[in-house]
Amino acid sequence: MKKIFPVIVVLVALSVLGIIVIQISWLNNLLRVQQDNYEIKITKAISSVASELSNQGPVPAMRLPRSGMHLFPFDFNFTVRPALISSRYTTNEIYVKLQKALSKEGLKNLPFEFAITSNASEMEVEMQSKYFFSVYNDSINSRTFYTPVMSEVNNDIPQPAFEHIYISVPNFNKEVRNSLLWVLLSSVAFTIIVIAAFFLTVKTIINQRNLSKIKNDFINNMTHELKTPLATISLAVDALQNSKVQSNPEKSNYFSGIIRQENKRMNKHVETILQAALMDKNELKLNFAPLNAHAVIEKVLNGFKLQLEEKGGTAELHLNAKNDLISADEVHFTNLINNLIDNAVKYSKEDLHLIITTHCTTRYLVIQVQDNGIGMSKETVKRIFEKFYRAHTGNVHNVKGFGLGMSYVKQVVDAHQGKIKVESTLGKGSTFILDIPLYKAEA
C-alpha cells in the first residue's frame, strides 16, 4: 500500500490536470466559434437592412432622344442619384430596422451603435447614433462591421456603392462570453467538482491508511491486554493445583485473589470495548440527575492511592467551586473523571504531581486536571480525542489501554452538553479543562 499510494496520487493528479487542460482548450475553441458565429449573424443582419434600403426610393435613369435640335452631339445617358438614406429615414427608424434584423438572427439584446456614410471625396457621415464615435474609436474592446448600400439604377445595372452602413458593438468579447455564461459556469462547476473529488479521494485513502494502522495497533494492544491476564490466571490455576498450595490456605487465598483480580481486569477491558460500540451506535443512555461533582472527584481520586504510591506521586485537591451541583449521569461522569486521572497516571514520569482544581462560572462547573507528566506534541493534542488513537511513547506496550479512554471522555462531555480542551507542553505535562453545565432546578 505504501508503494501504490504515491502512484495512485500521481495518476489521479495527472488525470485531473488533463481534464482541466482539455476543458480550457475546449472553452477557448468554443469562444472562437461563438465569435465567428456572432460576426456572421451581425454581417447578415446589416446586409439584410442594406438590401432593404437599396430597394427603396431609387430615381430611374433618364435618356434624351436624338432629334432635330440637339443639346448634345450624341446619345447621352445620365443618372440622377437616389435620395440619401438620411433624407428618407430618421435615425430612430434605421435603429429599429437594425434591431429587428439582429433579433431575427437571435441577437435580440445585443447593444450596438450605428452610422451611415456617403462616399464623397472624403467620407461623410449622414447620420449616426448618439455614442457611435466613442464606441467606434474604442478599437480594443469594440468590434465594427460595415456593408455597402447598393443602388440599382440605369436599367437595373448595379452602380458602385454610394453609401455604407456601419455597426459598432461595444465590449464585443464580453458579449460573446456572456452568451456562453451558463456553459462557462457549468464547465467551471464541473472542474471544481472533479478537483474536489480528487482531494476527497486522496483524503479518503489517507484516512483509510490511518484507520488500517490504528486498527492494527488496536488489535495488537487488545491481544496484549487480554493475553497478560489470561497468562496470569493460567499460572495461578496451575499453582492452585499444587498439593503444597492446596494445603496452605494463605497461599490458596493469594492465588485465588490473583484470579479474581485478573478476571476483573479482563471484564473491564471487555466493558470498555462494549462502551465504544454503544457510542458508535449512539445507543448510550444517560440518566441525568443532580450530582455533587466534588464527592465524585474525591471518591475517584481515593481509588488511585495505590497507583500514586507506586509512582511516588502526590495529588492536590483545590475544590474551590462554591456550587458543584451539576446535572449528570453518575456512572458515566464517574468514568469520565476516572479516565482523566488514569490518563495522567499512565502517561506520567516518576514523582508524579497531580493537581485537580474546580471553580464555577454562571453556567458551568470548571474542572482542571493538571499533571507534570510526559506532555503531548501538537499533533497528539489535535488527535487526543480520536478513537483508538494513543500517544507514542517509544514502546507500544509500556502504556496499557486501547486508545478509547479519551474518545469516551469527549463523547460523554458532548452528551452532557459540556466542553473540554487540552493544554500541553511536551516534556512538561498536560492540563485537561472540563466545563460541565450546572444543575438548574425546574421552576
TrEMBL record:
UniProt entry tagged with the keyword Kinase: yes
Domain of life: Bacteria
Pfam families xrefs: HATPase_c, HisKA
Domain Histidine kinase: 221-440
Enzyme Commission code(s) on record: 2.7.13.3
Transmembrane stretches, start-end: 180-206
Keywords linked to the UniProt accession: Kinase, Membrane, Phosphoprotein, Transferase, Transmembrane, Transmembrane helix
Record-linked SMART domains: HATPase_c, HisKA
Enzyme class: transferase
Record field: catalytic activity: ATP + protein L-histidine = ADP + protein N-phospho-L-histidine
Record-level Gene Ontology MF annotations: phosphorelay sensor kinase activity
PANTHER family attached to this UniProt entry: HYBRID SIGNAL TRANSDUCTION HISTIDINE KINASE C, TWO-COMPONENT HISTIDINE KINASE
Name under which the protein is recorded: histidine kinase
